[in-house]
Design brief:
Elements lengths: L1 E5 L3 H13 L4 E6 L8 H5 L9 E6 L5 H6 L11 E7 L7 H9 L1 E4 L8 H14 L6 H11 L3 H11 L7 H7 L4 H13 L3 H11 L5 H20 L4 H8 L3 H35 L4 H13 L2
Parallel strand pairs: 1-4, 1-5, 2-3, 3-4
Length: about 300
């Protein structure tokens, strides 16, 4: 039997591999395909051991070994019936003959990495995973958790493991226990400016300056400003705008009241402020953090 796990969602690939291992009664071997030599293939794909008649052979990243990958299709028919071969390829070249031959005979499972477009899927997933870990997560808490952590399943699962030891999970508990990802920090900074809270803006910048890159942070803030502008000119619900932009719907729902308050004219002024700051960052030898702070203070004073 041959199983092919493809896609860059390493969490789902590893979970599928654990499932295969749990159902297999025999010797399990994991091999780095990038380091395999041709002389090893007969033992890996056709050999037996003294300890078991069945073997589970897992080969990761074989496609990085161009020499073997390009000729591996000739070895596929030779895989012993006593061997369950699992090939894990995050980014296989689907045009190659080896991939096409594997696709014909293997059980193929494709798991793509989640993006912000998968926010709803992530929210539904954390609710189910929380149940499996022995606690409940309501819809509001799930939204806050995904907004705070992002759509990375590894990070989400680690966050759920932290929450599993708490008596009761609430939005406040999530904010206290789960560290915010950079995008969440950026959103909080931008929202503080939109609320006109200059003091909070300066405090947050002082903190972020210790760990973040000013240019990267400005890029993320500019994205927030663009989303604000999109909300201000659209008559659609924020969830629909989020879908069109590929943005987090929960984050846009929090931006929506600010967009409504500012209107099209206010949103244009925000965009103009960021355009001016962007020009300054590209042409000035001054402190980028100072330029960033000035831009946010101007937004706060609108």
């Amino acid at each position: 039997m041959i199983t092919l796990l493809i896609g860059e969602n390493s969490f789902e690939n590893e979970r599928k591999l654990r499932e295969i291992k749990s159902q297999f009664d025999g010797v399990s071997e994991i091999v780095d395909g990038a380091e395999i030599e041709l002389k090893q293939l007969p033992d890996l794909l056709m050999g037996v051991t003294l300890f078991s008649s069945n073997r589970l052979v897992v080969i990761k990243r074989l496609s990085e070994n161009k020499t073997l990958w390009n000729g591996f299709e000739s070895w596929i028919p030779r895989v012993s019936d006593d061997i369950h071969l699992v090939i894990i390829e995050p980014k296989p070249d689907k045009r190659t003959k080896t991939f096409k031959e594997l696709q014909k005979v293997a059980n193929v499972y494709e798991a793509q990495a989640w993006t912000e477009r998968d926010t709803l899927k992530a929210e539904q997933w954390v609710v189910k995973e929380a149940q499996m870990l022995g606690f409940s997560l309501d819809k509001k808490s799930a939204q806050i958790l995904v907004a705070r952590v992002g759509a990375d399943q590894w990070q989400l699962y680690r966050a759920l493991e932290k929450l599993a030891v708490v008596d009761e999970v609430t939005p406040l508990v999530i904010e206290e226990l789960i560290e915010a990802n950079p995008l969440e920090n950026v959103f909080n900074l931008f929202e503080a400016a939109l609320r006109g809270d200059v003091r909070r803006v300066k405090q947050m910048i002082e903190t972020l300056e210790l760990t973040e890159d000013a240019y990267r942070l400005f890029g993320l803030l500019s994205s927030q400003a663009f989303q604000l502008a999109a909300l201000s000119v659209s008559e659609k619900p924020s969830a629909d705008v989020a879908k069109e932009l590929g943005a987090h719907p929960f984050a846009l729902s929090k931006l929506a009241p600010h967009a409504k308050k500012l209107g099209k004219g206010g949103a244009r002024r925000v965009i103009a402020i960021f355009a001016e700051a962007d020009s300054g960052m590209k042409t000035s030898a001054g402190d980028p953090w100072l330029l960033l702070e000035r831009a946010l203070v101007k937004v706060a004073c609108l």
